[in-house]
Write a structure and sequence with these properties.
199 residues; alpha/beta; 5 strands; 14% strand; globular
Length: 199
């Protein structure tokens, strides 16, 4: 986690920079201004990042800490991993003596996946997604190996036909007007989570 001053008493953590940009756009969409977004540098860095965060000036004033993580292969395993990282930092889910309210949201579609899968759910009715699917299928048919991460491959292919710099998911959310419909029902659980962090 890059050193970043704590300037608000409610914090939302995302896995990486792309998530940080995406969540900042989502908070703006929800008209939430009292939550600070940070990234923790990937799931393997969560435990160390939490320990670092606790030592920063101003953390004693934090009243809510929201942590997001991709489910990857399993929602349950991802939750267990976050709880282990929390325990390593001396924190636990919920509220407790001497700690902020700690909330966790695992990003998935049907128990597996990641933020890209949630976004793809919001794009399911978009006509251009059919072109994306045909393109990736054609690549495989012509001898290219199956993408190791199909959701990321589909999102990157979709972004390639949009006016967005760096082909990053977060940029699609922050662009005005947003390329992603952040009011889509696919984002309902995530919007509810950020509202909970905001109090």
């Amino acid at each position: 986690m890059a050193e970043q001053a704590i300037i608000k008493n409610r914090i939302l953590l995302g896995e990486g920079k792309d998530e940080e940009v995406f969540f900042a756009a989502l908070l703006e969409f929800e008209h939430i201004a009292n939550v600070q977004v940070m990234e923790y540098g990937g799931k393997r860095r969560l435990a160390a990042s939490l320990k670092e965060l606790l030592k920063r000036p101003g953390f004693g004033d934090v009243v809510a800490l929201g942590i997001t993580r991709d489910a990857d292969e399993s929602d349950a395993s991802a939750r267990a991993s976050v709880e282990s990282a929390l325990a390593g930092a001396g924190l636990k889910l919920g509220a407790g003596p001497g700690q902020p309210l700690v909330l966790v949201h695992v990003l998935h579609r049907d128990g597996r996946g990641m933020l890209e899968d949630v976004c793809l759910s919001s794009l399911a009715e978009r006509p251009e997604l059919e072109c994306v699917n045909k393109y990736l299928a054609c690549c495989v048919e012509k001898g290219q190996p199956h993408p190791p991460n199909p959701a990321k491959a589909r999102i990157h292919a979709w972004l390639a036909c949009k006016d967005v710099r760096e082909y990053q998911l977060g940029r699609a959310a922050e662009k005005q007007p947003p390329l992603l419909d952040l009011g889509h029902p696919a984002f309902d659980p995530l919007r509810a989570f950020v509202r909970e962090v905001a109090g």
